[in-house]
Design brief:
With 350 residues, this protein is an alpha/beta fold. It has one domain: NAD(P)-binding Rossmann-like Domain (Rossmann fold, 3-Layer(aba) Sandwich), CATH 3.40.50.720. 40% of the residues lie in helices and 16% in strands. It contains 11 helices and 12 strands. It has a 7-stranded parallel β-sheet with strand order 3-2-1-4-5-6-10, sandwiched between helices. It has a 3-stranded mixed β-sheet with strand order 7-9-11. Strand 5, helix 5 and strand 6 form a beta-alpha-beta unit. Helix 1 crosses helix 7, helix 6 packs parallel to helix 8 and helix 8 packs across helix 10. The longest helix has 25 residues. The chain starts with a strand and ends in a 14-residue tail after the last helix. 47% of the residues are buried. The site of nicotinamide-adenine-dinucleotide (NAD) has 31 residues, from helix 1, helix 4, strand 5 and strand 7.
Length: 350
């Protein structure tokens, strides 16, 4: 299958590109190369004859039309987005333009192409979204996000993703564009840009810096290893039912404090501090994020029961793999630390 992947130089998109090439697919990676992108993420596949890269901005409709006409994909996996909640608080405009208008452009370019080639039924537009569109859950562990949970986004980021989900459903209902949609919990793993919690903690610990925890650290997230998410996405693309959405989650709820303490324990084992103290000594509580959602947790029954998906690692295994990856790939993360905003506290200006 020839898959047009947007955002393939980012964290999750690059995992999708690497796995798709390994699985024998052709990939056209469309990415504007924003501050969050890194072409090193796809270096292992860059020389494949089945891989092509197009530097283009999804806000540029004419560029998208050319790319569709040139490459004639069988499917689209749309991951390109502004993805950092804290940045969406400081500057929501980019999130509206890329996540909403950019998705509109992608839908229109895909629709135009799909109509031009005779509306093939096997064509798919796979929109990759987040569980944050569902809002915040109570502490009661019996309550989970299902595909039927009402949308209730509460940050500029999640509101822009919710809007894009609605557009994709509308293009399916109105124009018949074949689509699948997936909403996933928090990802972690190799190539995670060093502005997000897990790499911030690993790299801050190694640098002897304070490890910032927003508020009291009680916010709960449901963590999924990025390679397991990428495998789920390729499965949804190929086996998902036209017009259906799938929640993807690892059933690994942890408070932020528990997560950071686990990372400290892994680092204590793999790279003990010179003074023999635990990295936990570096944990510092900082001002909370405005509107910080209390809890996210996914019920993955649909993708598990209908498509047979299972994560391959537990969160403890995935976190150990992730810490080891950062220890082994210092050149990768050092090069990104000078990117704009990295290492600064963002998103407190509300
Ligand atoms: N990271 C998570 O935990 C998570 C969880 C669920 C869903 N998602 C969704 O998955 C997708 C990928 O997330 P990520 O964490 O890999 O993001 P990321 O920020 O690491 O990567 C985003 C990529 O999109 C590209 N991009 C941004 N704006 C663009 C534009 N206007 N035109 C073309 N390319 C552009 C960037 O250059 C970058 O390569 C997003 O749609 C996000 O909403 C992320």
């Amino acid at each position: 299958m020839k898959i047009l992947v947007t955002g393939g130089a980012g964290f999750i998109g690059s995992a999708v590109v690497r796995q798709a090439i390994r699985a024998g697919h052709e990939v056209v990676n469309v990415d504007a190369l924003t501050y969050a992108a890194c072409l090193d993420n796809v270096a292992e596949v860059a020389d494949s004859p089945r891989y092509a890269f197009e530097q283009a901005d999804i806000r540029d409709r004419a560029a998208l039309d050319k790319i569709f006409a040139l490459h004639a994909p069988d499917a689209v996996m749309h991951l390109a987005a502004e993805s950092h909640v804290d940045r969406s608080i400081d500057g929501p405009g980019d999130f509206i333009e890329t996540n909403i208008t950019g998705t509109f452009n992608m839908l229109e370019a895909a629709r135009r192409f799909w109509v031009a080639v005779g509306k093939p039924g096997h064509f798919r537009f796979h929109h990759i979204s987040t569980d944050e569109v569902y809002g915040s859950l109570p502490a009661d562990k019996s309550v989970l996000f299902t595909e039927d949970t009402a949308y209730d986004p509460r940050s500029p980021y999640s509101a822009s993703k919710a809007a894009s989900d609605h557009l994709v459903r509308a293009w399916h209902e109105t124009y018949g564009l074949p689509m699948v949609l997936s909403n996933c919990s928090n990802n972690y793993g190799p190539y995670h840009f060093p502005e997000k919690l897990i790499p911030v903690v690993i790299l801050g610990a190694l640098a002897g810096k304070p490890l910032p925890i927003y508020g009291d650290g009680s916010n709960i997230r449901d963590w999924l290893y990025v390679e397991d998410h990428a495998a789920a996405l390729l499965l949804v693309l190929q086996k998902g039912e036209n017009g259906r959405s799938y929640n993807i989650g690892g059933e690994n709820e942890r408070t932020n404090l528990e997560l950071v303490e686990t990372l400290c324990a892994i680092l204590d084992d793999k790279r003990p501090r010179a003074d023999g103290q635990s990295y936990k000594e570096q944990i510092t509580f900082v001002t909370d994020r405005p509107g910080h959602d209390a809890r996210y947790a996914i019920d993955p029954s649909r993708i598990r029961d209908e498509l047979g998906w299972r994560p391959s690692v537990t969160v403890e295994e995935g976190l150990a793999l992730t810490v080891q990856w950062y220890l082994d790939n210092e050149a990768w993360w050092r090069a990104l630390q000078s990117r704009i905003g990295v290492g600064q506290r963002l998103g407190v200006s509300a």
